[in-house]
Amino acid sequence: MAPKTNGVGIRPEETRICVVMVGLPARGKSYIAQKAQRYLKWLSIPAATFNVGNYRRNDAPHPSADFFDTNNAEGERKRRAAAEAAVADMMKWFKSGGVVGILDATNSTKERRKWVLDRINQEGVDVIFVESKCDEEELIMANIRDVKTTSPDYQGQDPEQAALDFRNRIRNYEKVYKTINADGDEDHLTYLKIMNVGRQVIINRIQDYLQSRIVYYLMNLHIRPRSVWLSRHGESMLNLEGRIGGDADLSHRGEEYALKLPELVLESVGSDRPLTVWTSTLKRTIATARHLPKHYNQLQWKALDELDAGVCDGMTYQEIADMYPEDFQARDEDKYNYRYRGGESYRDVVIRLEPIIMELERSEDILIISHQAVIRCIYAYFMQKTQEESPWVPVPLHTLMKLTTRAYGTEVQIYKAEVKAVSTWRGKGSTAKHEDPTPEGGV
Amino acid sequence: MDTLLTAEIAANAPRYRRKSSTFIDGIHDVPSEVGNLAPAQLYSTMSGRLFHSGRIAIVMVGLPARGKTHICVSMARYLSWLGVKTRIFHLGDYRRATVGQGGHVPQDYFYPNASPASVMLRQKILKKCREDIYGWLNHENGQVAIYDAVNPTASGRRALAKEFAKHDVQTLFIESFVDDQEILKENARNVKISSPDFHGMDPDEAAKRYLKRIETKIPVFETMAEEELNYVKMINAGQAFFYNNVSFNYLSHRIVFYLTNLHIKHRTTFFVRAGTATEEDSYKADAPLSAEGEAYAQVMAETLMRHREQERQAIIDQGGPDVPLRPLTIWTSTRLRTIQTAEPLRELGYKVRHRSQMSQINPGVCEKLSERAIRNLYPEEVEKHELDPYHHRYPRAESYHDLAVRLEPIILELEREQNDLLIIAHESVLRVLYSYLMHCSTRDIPKLKFPRDEIIEIIPAAYQNEAKRIHIPGLDPRMIPGSPEDIRIPVPPGLEDFAGGGRQLSPISIPAMMMGSPPSATEVTIGFATGDRKGSVSFGGDRKGSISMSNTGGLRSVSGSFSGGERPVTEKIVNNTAKEMVEDKVGDED
Fold first, then answer.
1. Which residues bind substrate (chain A) (predicted)?
2. A-chain residues within 8 Å CB-CB of B253?
3. Quick check: A381 and A36 in contact, CB under 8 A?
4. Who is most buried in A166, A267, B395, B424, counting CB within 10 A?
5. DSSP readout, A66-114?
6. Among A257, A238, A258, which residue's Cα sits nearest to residue A248?
7. Mean pLDDT of chain A, nearest integer
8. Chain A residue numbers touching B326 (CB-CB < 8 A)
9. Catalytic entry in B25, B93, B148, B420
């Protein structure tokens, strides 16, 4: 397909992409779909996953392996109906402004892929197929045990039985499964094929930057277990005064937190294996990290600096409300998109954090010491917080957070330092210097 | 001669390496300073090696006319930008150096059953090239050596990987595989038709003959299928990739990501400053354009449109095809003045995209401070700044390095873009983007100047990019120079390697012969670079200057005489190397 152009060279940016997953059950399709969706949404690219299994369950909640036999006409009909319903919903979603839709299903035959492609192209949406192909028995079995025995399909059943039935279900799929372009007649498709967890990769006919970005992101995913630790800097002198931004030193209590941090980290890590520490370039995060063990490698990133409040830097919320009442109100109305005069918005921060996220995905254990807005943005990535929620998330001072990604979501553990600090959280409309977070505040 | 000296290689192969000015693409330069971090380098390590990767040899695989040079050069550009110490080793340079000027390799040089003499010659050339690679990786802290050669057989590649492994170097093969006849013909046409062998021949016919010649010369070529090797196969200039990953990680993913965005279509990039803003000209205020700024936007747009039309006409006049102009896309930052500068073009129907990453460098505490005030308030910072203007960051400010890291996603989109591209941004952003395309050293980047009365055009070519400047006429001289919202510490005198520093108005380093000569009358001889755009020079010389152009065979010369000009009008300084390189490449088998 040629890039879309018209007479004066307008190339519409409004590309819409449908990521169509391909592969046998238990090949990590849902994991890939879930990660891709999280990443895109975080980048403000409207993304949603449509899991055909969920649609099918409406009709057939607990099917046995026979249901997936291609000779079972009834099963076949229901599965086709579920796929149609999922695609129809996705199309509706595209019309309401969706950009990247992910169709999570096996799509394991050429006929099915052709149907999906035609059906989706017809609506002016580009298709990229993402196949996960894996022949390593051990990996497949691990996947079956971990994920599928907790699947709603097998709720309340004996796990051994469930695993056996699931194995048979896969056999039924294997009978008809064709990997993409196996016969050489699917070369016109845009696709990414990941074989044996990245041992081989085929990339075919990438159409635009967004697609290349998705492909790159998926190639960087790894499945080694690891965690990310997040902490704000210790309480600063400006925090005490309720002033935002600045480049102040730590308060006494902030210093106390810095001293306590190594102990807190050790408790959370559980061993003396070293973490890599990333701080911002501002004094308060560097000071907070300075007592950590010498064998921890430390790096400073400008990209981890606090959201730049522009002309409002160093002011209290009251001062901002007095001096720039319209701005103050505009910010509360759409905190994610509001850009301080001469400064940044949350959206700007997310964009500058993008290389950090890519580095995070490819790295192992990292401890990030940064600032309220930045931690909120990173937290939003891992926890899939919406743009409405993320700028209001309470991130208290003197608290260490451990995030561990699992197949279907992220696990959070909180470690409190028990060193007193002011609260810097602010509810919508408030100009208080310090107030305690409320569950409904802001959101 | 058993041992070839590197110096001999350099002497015999004109495209080996050279020193260059910031106006010449520096991708083939030997970096002179030690400890000079790359523009977007995130961190440094004791060993100098990044991304938890050791020493790597990227070995190119592919027949001639498969775009290997373009891939090598682009990859080196990107990796160096990320801070990975990268150098390209063209085997062809070593072969040419060995056989000497005008010499030829024996007819059976590439045959599998070559005569013992040819085999020995081949071995000698290979040995010397590899010794240089090891020398660079082991003793000069290099991280990635790109080895540009045909490497046609599986057995040869296996042996190579084994040999590199013995030297503790990991090998990643990158094959450019092309079976699309259109791409082949296009590649052959672009590089090879200037050969005397094909003089006066129909380009299609010449391309066909050239491809035929490759086949006879290199009769055996096996595409990669070695399961035990790490390789990326790029098929038909990026239409598909096959990636066999045995032991590689991030760096190779990054390379693949970069390659998926690379294309071989010809397109140019224009850089231009934003117009002047109203008197509240500061970083934080984000003021709109002043009346002069709006007038500037109008004139700039007209100049650009006229220039593009003239270029097109010039191609037709030279007998080129009458093709419509490539579409033009405009990128601005999210700052008001850049958005408003694009307004006249947007009204003409061009697509304008706003990119928040392209906001100007943040001056931090230096905002609105005069140089004297900064020196008084932050004497220690000034001292640090003067030592390393690229990496130093004033309190709350961004360094150029921070800016480069922030611009990295833009770089990839820049590579992906197939339309002509106009970038309207603050001078600091232009400096960094320009430095990517022209491979400037971090010492030079903070000094690059983009006067408002010029549009900079970057024209890509396989071996190196070219920069050209288009004059915007009739501007008030007061609006031309630097940005008032910049940090007002001039480039420290110690680092000034430019004659007549006080009136440094353009990013070009003037060739030695021009230095010290009075601005009243200057003779410049300029050699021309590669490609099909030879005649397309534009001149900014309407300020009391006159320029004449003559065509003396292969080498054209431009001479200009200026009276009372503020600066020498050197429109396009392209070294001869590029030209020689193209001729040199004809009949090339590497």
1. 232-239, 284
2. 216, 219-220, 362
3. no
4. B424
5. GGG-TT-HHHHHHHHHHHHHHHHHHHHHHHTT--EEEEES---SHHHHH
6. A238
7. 87
8. 9
9. B148
- The 10 Å CB-count burial string (b at 16+, else e) for B343-365 is bbbeeeebbbeebbbbbbbbbbb
**3-class DSSP assignment, residue B177:** strand
Rounded Cα distance, A22 and A298, in Å: 41
Is the pLDDT confidence value at B579 over 60? no
Closest Cβ–Cβ partner in B238, B245, B327 for A9: B327
- Best of B286, B346, B367, B400 to disrupt the A interface (most A CBs within 10 Å) is B286
In chain A, the N- to C-terminal Cα span, in Å, equals: 43
* B132 in catalytic set: no
d(CA B201, CA B290): 56
- Give the tens place of pLDDT for each residue, A231-245: 999 999 999 999 999
Phi, psi of B497 (to 5 degrees): -110, 35
**Which among B238, B253, B353 is the nearest to A219, CB-wise?**
B253
Whether A202 and B357 lie within 8 Å, measured CB to CB:
no
Kindly state the DSSP code that residue B506 receives in the 8-state scheme.
S
Residues 6+ apart with CB under 8 A from B481: B451, B452, B505
Task: Report which residue type is found at A353.
Answer: L
Distances (CA, A) of A123 to A93, A109, A192: 12, 22, 22
Q: Does A314 touch chain B (CB under 8 A)?
A: no
- Counting Cα atoms < 13 Å in the Cβ hemisphere of B60 gives 27
Q: Are B268 and A324 in contact (CB under 8 A)?
A: no
CB burial of residue A216 (10 Å; 0-12, 13-18, 19+): buried
Which of A375, A403, A48 has the alpha carbon at shortest distance from A228? A403
Residue A114, token pair as written in the block? 């052709």
Q: Does B535 touch chain A if contact means CB atoms closer than 8 Å?
A: no
User: Distance between CA A337 and CA A349 in Å, rounded?
Assistant: 10
Radius of gyration of chain A (CA): 25
The band of B196, judged by pLDDT with boundaries at 50, 70 and 90, is low
**Are B171 and B59 within 8 A, CB to CB?**
yes
* Three-state secondary structure of B305-328: HHHHHHHHHHHHHCCCCCCCCCCE
Phi, then psi, of B509 in degrees rounded to 5: -85, 130
Alpha-carbon distance values, B399 to B263, B403, B428, B446 (Å): 31, 6, 10, 10
The CA distance from A189 to A20, in Å, is 11
Q: What angle do CA A113, A119, A122 make, to 5 degrees?
A: 130
Q: Which whole number is the average pLDDT over A3-21?
A: 56
Say which residues have a Cβ less than 8 Å from residue B405's Cβ, sequence separation at least 6. A302, A303, A355, B40, B42
> Averaged over A136-147, what is the pLDDT?
76
pLDDT at A142 over 80: no
Which single residue is written with the structure tokens 């006919």?
Answer: A205
Q: What is the dihedral of CA A170, A188, A118, A181, to 10 degrees?
A: -20
Q: Are B225 and B154 in contact (CB under 8 A)?
A: yes
The pair of three-digit structure tokens given for residue A103, joined into one six-digit string: 């169709």
- CB–CB contacts below 8 A, A to B: 123
ipTM above 0.95, yes or no: no
The tokens for B481 are: 């120079």
Alpha carbon distance B267, B419 (integer Å)? 6
- At A323-381, the pLDDT tens digits run 999 889 989 998 998 888 777 889 889 988 887 888 788 777 899 999 999 999 999 99
Token representation of residue B130: 């590899």
